[in-house]
Amino acid sequence: MFHDYSKIMIKAGDGGNGMVAFRREKYVPMGGPAGGDGGRGGSIYMRGCATLHTLIDFKYRRHYKAERGENGMSKNCFGAAGEDMYLDVPLGTVVRDEKGNMIADITCDGQVVLVAKGGRGGRGNTRFVTRADSAPHIAENGEPGEEKTLILELKVLADVGLIGMPNAGKSTLISRVTAAQPKIANYPFTTLTPNLGVAYPIPGEDGFVIADLPGLIEGASSGIGLGHRFLRHAERTRVMVHVLDMSEYSDRDPLKDFEIINEELRLYKQNFMARPQLIAANKMDTEGSAERLEQLREYIGDRYPIYPISALTGEGVQELLMAVYNTLLTAPPIEEEAPPQEDVRVTVVRDEAPFVIEEEEPGVWRVTGKRIENLVQLTNLDNEDALMRMQRTIVQMGLEDALRAKGVEPGDTVCILDVEFEYAE
Ligand SMILES: Nc1nc2c(ncn2[C@@H]2O[C@H](COP(=O)(O)OP(=O)(O)OP(=O)(O)O)[C@@H](O)[C@H]2O)c(=O)[nH]1
Ligand SMILES: [Mg+2]
Questions:
Q1: Structural domain boundaries enclosing 220
Q2: Cys-Cys crosslink for 151: which of 96, 272, 412, 417, Cβ 3.0 to 4.6 Å?
Q3: What is the pLDDT of residue 348?
Q4: More confident position, 42 or 204
Q5: Would you say the CB of residue 191 lies under 6 angstroms from ligand 1?
């Protein structure tokens, strides 16, 4: 099996809690506040790595958790930040969230994209000094790290895709024109992962990348077998070379094969068929192939250019490569969905409505909203002073007025996340 699809769960590190502490020094009976801030939690990044070719690592390990920030300490010492985590993926990996929105498109070696942000460290009591309170007994909890499900999909990055029925000779062809050494065998579905190679048809000039794709069968577009996964790899190739088996001995019908594969491409994605396609009529070294070539020429007419080759002996291969090279020069770029800009990924909390109130059952109200939930998460509920501060902030946010307007009565229960409060005037 090959691994070009994976679903993983990631959790960035929580921020460390802030500390409540006071200076204790000899001869200083009432030292000032000295609680340090908690450290920031480790973030999780995706990183492009040119030496990886599959997503197999993500099959065996699906949960990733970055380190938590250290708690703040006394003497104003800050907690250490949690270590960031880098998940290496092969080039061509598209990262999506659970809803299918693209988060990142990894195309370059060393490219780094933030996928889950570590939580901010909670502030220590030193930070809560005000004119009215010079010795505050409150500190914040660390903010939780972001938690997500990610879908990783690998789509090979190649200029040219070799498509065709199983056993048509695609791997043989790529092994002849590039340094790639795929497995070649006389049975269908020998190739299960795409192989990439670079061909240099003109010495001294730039080459192009060819992908040897797994063979397609009828029904591939509807997901039969591994069809969808195979086809995904063809999505990014600008030119397609359709390899047909012309030999008599293999008993295939090249005309029918040609139609079946193109129908699959059409069903998978309409715009596939708009891409330039060249036909490589393969195995021309075998007996009976010449007659079949004549039939093919008649059938295709001038719809597609046909290049008779033998991937085995190399005959006709250079002509094919030159034609591919020239086609690439004028082939249009692939139109793809663009990954979001970096800053779109940062959760903007401030601009949202601060909360929504709903009555869950008579006398029980639930308040939701990022800002208010954040406030509750950051508050150390065991600490009287911290609770007071939270309540003041909640009043400032207008929750009390809003609750009253909704008809909340004294004695009712108000829930925020898993915390329940009894409402009192
Ligand atoms: N005589 C002859 N045999 C060939 C030629 N090209 C490939 N073959 C043979 O055809 C068989 C299949 O070749 P592969 O290159 O593995 O075919 P493929 O298209 O990659 O097949 P899958 O990976 O299964 O989709 C092998 O036994 C090859 O040696 C050719 O030009 N002439
Ligand atoms: Mg193969």
A1: 160-330
A2: 96
A3: 37
A4: 42
A5: yes
